[in-house]
Protein 1
Amino acid sequence: METVKITIDNKVIEVAKGTTILKAAKEAGIHIPTLCYLHLHDLNIENKPAGCRICVVEVEGRRNLAPACVTECLDGMVINTHNIRVLNSRKTVLELILSDHPTDCLICAKNGNCELQTMAQEFGVRKIHYEGEQSTYREDTSPAIIRDVDKCIMCRRCEMMCNEVQTVGVLSAVNRGFMSVVAPAFEMNLDHSECTYCGQCVAVCPTGALTEVDHTNQVIRALADPTKTVVVQTAPAVRAALGEEFGMEPGTLVTGKLAAALRRLGFNYVFDTDFAADLTIMEEGTELLDRLTRHLNGDKDVPLPILTSCCPGWVNFFEHQFPDMRDIPSTARSPQQMFGAIAKTYFAEKIGVKRDDLVVVSIMPCLAKKYECQREEFATDGNPDVDFSISTRELAHLIKQSNINFNDLADEDFDNPLGESTGAAVIFGTTGGVIEAAVRTAYEVHTGKKLEKVDFEELRGMDFIREATIDFNGLPIRIGIAHGLGNARKLLQDIKDGKSNFHAIEIMACPGGCIGGGGQPLHHGDSSIIKARQKAIYREDAGKAIRKSHENPYIIQLYEEFLGKPMSEKSHHLLHTHYFDKSKEIKVVE
Amino acid sequence: MGQVKSLADLRKIKENQQGKMSLREKSNNPESLVQVRVAMATCGIASGAKQVMDFFIEEFDKRNIQAVVTQTGCMGYCFAEPTVEVTLPGKEPVVFGYVDAKKADDIIEKYVKNGELVEGIIPVNYETIEKK
Amino acid sequence: MAKYKMHVLVCGGTGCHASQSDLLLDNLKTIVADKGLDNEVQVIATGCFGFCEKGPIVKIMPDNTFYTQVTPEDAREIIEEHLIKGRKVNRLLYVDPENQEHIADSKHMGFYKKQLRIALRNCGFIDPENIDEYIARDGYEAMAKCLTEMTPQQVIDIMKKSGLRGRGGGGFPTGLKWEITNRSVSDIKYVVCNADEGDPGAFMDRSILEGDPHSVIEAMAICGYCIGGEHGLVYIRAEYPLAINRLKIAIEQAREYGLLGKNILGSDFSFDIELRYGAGAFVCGEETALIHSMEGLRGEPTVKPPFPSVSGYFEKPTNVNNVETFANVPVIINKGAEWFSSIGSEKSKGTKVFALAGKINNVGLIEVPMGTTLREVIYEIGGGIKDGKKFKAVQTGGPSGGCLTEKHLDVPIDYDNLIASGSMMGSGGMIVMDEDDCMVSVAKFYLDFTVEESCGKCSPCRIGNKRLYEILDKITQGKGTRDDIDRLRNLSTVIKDTALCGLGQTSPNPVLSTIDNFWDEYIEHVTDKKCRSGQCKALLQYFIDAENCVGCTACARNCPVNAIAGERKGIHVIDQTTCIKCGACMEKCKFNAVYIK
């Protein structure tokens, strides 16, 4: 490896050729502050527009200061990261950014969690020397995401996520000069765009410019209403991340505390979306086998591969971008919606509560779920199957304001019948998990044999596109996995071009899957957090007594008592859906 | 328009066009060329100045002499029309009167080519010449 | 075939065109035909003569008569008097501002005397829509020479030896740029002509493209040959319709002749040119922003390296040169590197085209050898300051440059001297200011421009320039403090030090150079609340003339803030600290005793 020698703050170090000053400094133990820069190392995602100019350093012999994030080290470079010229410039630039930023920190959704606020605090800014006019814009509220771009600092992280990672292409810089801001084309509202509500823009926004729509008040009101029975479901990825909001190490599993906290909050029944994940496997797995069998038997009308459909961001994506291929994904509803449908029928009947008096709340690592539960097709006579969906972050706020000492809670279990789940359901929370869960069940159903080993390591990992062939007793089943919508697009394009030879593909919109969802505690650019959550998910799976969905006794009971069998008429009615062509829905509004 | 296939083709176009533009080229630095000014007011035209001018233009071209022929208003020697002022590079202007084709031919052959003076000089620059 | 005795050249540049030179041209042609002179007189439209102050221009050859401000109605008189009777139309001749004499021959005009036209060699001389006229003036000969007799490296060596530097403002050695692009290994390479001229008041590139489009086409092909690229792109502002049209005609003609296209002049070299239109964003003159704009992306710069010569248009090596730079190339090949490098100064060779504007007699486009002094340009070529006023400053380099003063007048103009003086060459804008110009307002004007034209990508430029503007505005409103000047200076330094691209790195220059050179004016504004030029209206003060005041008390009675004191029948006085400049006193005074200063 070719190396170069540089002097940084009087320290001589040798780094690989091509290393940026920022990375070299890190190797030398020097922390150069950054704002727009973002590097999700484990996901190979990097944002470096070199726009904020906070990371400038002095390079001897250079006329102006150099942005450390993009300037490569050259042999013999002498770098000073904190002399008076650098410190003055850096602070002045920060003051400039602050001068065009609202100062309503106390009531900002990102209060205490804002990278700009932290930086101002670290720099000891006490006065803004360059106050002046502030750029203001219309606030945009969509079903899931609020854009308050007065707070946009043009770091372009969201733009990079939306365009390069997700290839959705909704957010980009518009206007010029002082009025430059990141927005949908023509500064339309998000709900008039092709936005999938994946929330990755929110996940990386350093300030309060992009936040989730807060539904906690609706939840509090429902809990306080004596006429309502309030049921809660919580998604698999939440238990692997919620602890972070309470100062726990990333990757700490808080399943038991989570159930306890939800009960303290006053939910009448504390259930688990994992139950519905098992149900999803029953439906989706059966559909997979059915389509596979018919396809292999030569039925040309049955297309393969079958694509998973649990991820609402992904569903929004193909409805907008590949509407002509909407017969390819499984018709199975997502676990959140399956849960809602079962809760408001089977369970409501069981406890003798009218549909209208039952409120279903979901705790999700996701913002697209907020949109999903508002879809018209998931409501009966205007009453939605899932009433409110709140994110992991919102739940943390709810717990904190309800005076619950989360860290001291003793573990509790979920309630039954909709709280029992298997290891297969837990891994829904990570990329590769849904398809692994499906394989565990489909294998046994198809071959009639018992799986010796339920861990399919070949399906796991963090690579954006993965593929594996699983031997179904002599029948090789080719499986593809993609996370991040840009990678999904690649696989989808291959199918469109007739180049795909997969039988089944799992797609999750967010990098890492739900563990990296737009509703999760903010990672602030540290991708090791997402990796730690993934490990926790597999740990939870390994610790479960039952690890295959079809072995969940309450699932078996549900089919016996209510649904009959997978893909039954009742299942179709309650657990399956259809998709829409949304490519024509883009409206330009004044 | 044909295609230009070689440097030679290009030069052909160039030469052809240069003839048409030489007038402009020459007037860019007339001091280095023979300058002929033909008085072309009514009096001059009536006495045949136009023909004289045409003669100069054509003959300079034929005899390959780099010259600029321009017209000017009445020079005030209406008695001697057509009148022509000739300036050789680096020399003072000389005005000739009663110029016809024959005289013009003389002017070209003798004065322009060899610097010999020809009859019919109107001594406008009398003093200047004397000073020398 | 007609042997023309006279050529009538009518300026067809944008400026003259706007003053009906097209109609003038039609009239001239029609009347010439009516008089049966069409075999003797050729009437053509040319590119810009540069003397835009007095357009439309008509030049008659061979006698070099230079008519100014010619209207379409003047056509008949010019033909009947000048063309037929040989009598120059005196009233249309240029009048020397010094001695009020009519000058018949353009060569004797001060405006042209000091000029040396290399890049503009054909502007105002040939018909830009006729490729033959270009060829007649050695057109495409340089390209032919390169393709048939020289290797790319030999051509690059000539360019390097000539000392030609980028005329767009950066001043990067052209030959070196070509060499770097030549060394970049790639299957596809691009030649880009930057015609996104954006400095306020600058129109060098437009005039070249309008007056001599083939020179740019030829140079781009030569560049393509040198770097090993077959694709040429001209990024041109859509606001230049005439230049676009002329360029399109020229490209078409060159294609018909086979001077663009496959296997040019029977060689292995193929080259063609496409146009790309810009929407007039100043920042798109920055080469990386220009390339992104051509790629269909937002026109904003990215960090260099990588330089376009290594990774440019669609990540292919791309050689970007400015129009004027290209226009120099064919002449250099034809006349040799030694010839070119003998012109100009030590480190800046050749000539530079400037757009002269402002309070100067001869507004227009000029080309002078590098090393010419500002004094020569302003007083000899420019004809001095308008209306006999006093010279105050000259702004060079557009919004990126600075204001130079009296003490810089004898500085020989070249890249390095201008930078050493606190300004820069830029693309060649030169705006002259006189005693009526307020230097704080000048700085504000330029900041207003950069605030508008910033792409918004980096914070120092996006927010910092806005703040600079706000502070300057505050000072011109009479609300500035001494502290504001320090803030201006610190902020300017930081913006220069931290901005991403050339726009932001230079945008504070007008502020810094006016503070440095006109410190007193800034101090006057903030401490005395005075603007000596009277341009800052908010700083004007109301006074009562003791001679005219009769003590009627009308002013005092009507003053809303009781700022006027005085006894009945006594002289009244305005208290400046209380006065709100509403003007009520002036309105009510029947004796013209109230005045503003």
Protein 2
Amino acid sequence: MRILVGIKRVVDYNVRIRVKPDGSGVDTDGVKMSINPFDEIGLEEALRIREAGRAEEVVVVSVGGDECQQQLRTGLAMGADRAIQVSTADSLQPLSLARVFLKLVEKEQPGLVILGKQAIDGDNSQTGQMLAALWDRPQATFASGLDLTGDTATVIREVDAGLETIEVDLPAVITVDLRLNEPRFVKLPDIMKAKRKPLDVIALDELGVSAENDIQVTQHTSPPQREKGILVEDAAQLVTELKNRGLV
Amino acid sequence: MNETTPAREVMEYDVVIVGAGPAGLACAIRLKQLKQDLMVAVLEKGAEVGAHILSGAVIEPGALDELIPGWQDNPPPVCIPVGQDELSFLTSASRYRLPTPPQQKNHGNFVVSLGALCAWLAPQAEALGVDIFPGYAAAGIHFADDGSVGGVIVGDMGVGLDGEPKDTYMQGIEIHAPLTVLAEGCRGHLSKLLINRFNLDAGSDPQVYGVGIKELWQVESGKCRPGLVQHSIGWPLDKNTYGGSFIYHMDKDRVAVGFVCALDYADPEFSPFEAFQQFKHHPSVKPLFAGGEILSGGARTIVEGGAQSLPRVEMPGALLIGDAAGLLNLPKIKGTHQAIRSGMLAAKHVTEMDTGEGFDEALRASAIMRELHKVRNVRPGFNKGLWRGLITAAIETVTAGKLPRTLHNHADHSTLRNLQNTKAVDRQWVERDLIPRDRLASVYFAGTEHDEDQTVHLQILEPEVCITRCGEEYGHPCTRFCPAQVYEMVADEVDENGQSAAGKHLQINAANCVHCKTCDIKDPYQIINWVTPEGGSGPNYQNL
């Protein structure tokens, strides 16, 4: 079985993000970029499945400019067998991304597609679901547990009510949540080995997918600054202050 | 780890360089330029190249011209020609312009972000075939059988707070090389270890240091004057404390502001962080920042000792370059050109001689050392206070260091006065309202990150001294000199009988650490030992 894993280049989760002064987006000048943490967990799971002998090949995929090759190389250093960059200068929205993945699925015929439950930049949480619909295959989202037996996958899902266990037929799309595993550290010699692993670049046009987005983002703004608070002496003063502000 | 630990995996290189700063990268680039088939590895503890680099920085372009001819056609992302220089003396209420001393004339120099410059150098080194490993810390030295340095040991990953391996444990490998080049910057922890082991400082004065704290601001539109370079001395420091401020106007309404305090200050109650924040509130400074926002911030120590504090820079199997050796030119307030040149010189020496032996002599005979020799008496002149220091500086400048005398440096950890002998100093400090409110708010801008479940990387060698002697003698200065509030004295917890313990203990917030090394230097008992945490930990500076 082959596993396709999507990894997105995003602003690192430790970085304090800042909206550009003109509101046209988030400032990424000199900012540390990393693999979306949920995607990294997805990749770790794929590697564990392969190491357990239930898959033969793990392929990492990223959609973007040449800079995302850095994240693909990290994926290869973690242990993926090969990488595919779908090259585009445009920023694709979930439906377009799902179409890209559908094309790759047709080409690669994976038994499993693993994606992060969402990317920490757009927070859309849509690509996996849309891919499953376009592909007409089952989906198991927000996975915090995953077990493969024969042609089915038993998935524990993190849902609002708690944990839900479902069984899906393969091939399927699984999107993974934070508690599924803790990704490994990359061994230094594996960075060298990753440089020699295959990384194919496919232009977006070649796949016949349009980069046109259905949603236009018009403005980015920072959340409003919190106003300075005051210390109140007692409950009576609190009530008075709240009343003065018309809050009670 | 005990004896049953399996042998570490080994990678072999011709040269392993510790630290991807200007010295280390220049050395790597020049090695490959001179001898293409050399295998060169650079280890960098920061998550990315530049993540742990913090400097003013105004740089002289000469060294870069030598390293990468034509670099100005493809300049680093932040690179603004210096327009005007201003030096001022501040009192708490006023500003007096001083003539700019010749060393500080910056015509032809550039305002850069040294972090961005290193991130720009790294791919050029990689294009030449250098293997750079950001996120991998050189945690120890591999000694060859004959006792010489034989390479480095990369730190283990995934070791818990209790010292036990976690699920993600990964043993660090060893990198073996006939030559190890230490380019860790100021007070590198492996450099410190090797200087002690090989007694490299036996013939030199103790190294002396300063701590620099810096913020990068986005100021209100119209306030920034790209290329303007401003320095000040005087307030908020008293006349017995050496240091001063810098304000460098960059592009896109960005202004770098920072403050450097020499670490030989005497008042145990003094806080370099507070001095920096006070400076920003000087009536002539505050309007620039009012209404602006901080993009990034952090702190780093610098070497100030110059020629007489320079240790031997070679030992069997290894060399020291850049500020790991201590080559910063203090009167110029610049070290980048010296770092780059020392990296290039090391590369030239090694490729010509096929050994590091003789590098100490080569360095001392070079222009790098001549530059330091000329200004050697400027810094120690300030040991007698600001005014006598300025007079010494003027004399030494006029005579170009030709007077047959060399003033001496004294170790920074020995200069604190006992609390009982210290009169509270009225620093005329004001109430502050510019951000950041305090050190915790400030650390936020450093983007510093450490997995909290890892071994504490600030080793206290004699913890009982903190509670007893230090409390009485100096009142826990670590709680004030650390710019990231790593050290806190907290009350002991109430015991099970409901008895409130009268004692307090030292709490180390290691996750706040910005790797500046102030504690390792200034701790009066020298019982704080800074070692590297897991690779990839620490600050994530943006354009500092």
